[in-house]
Amino acid sequence: MKSKKNIVLIAHDDLKDEMIDWAKKNLKSLKSHNLFGTGTTGKILANELKLKIKRFKTGPLGGDQQTGAKIAEGKIDCMIFFWDPLSPHPHDVDVKALLRLAVVYDIAVATNRASADFLLSSPLMKKAYKQVPMKLISK
Question: Out of 17, 64, 77, 106, which one is annotated catalytic?
Answer without folding.
Answer: 64
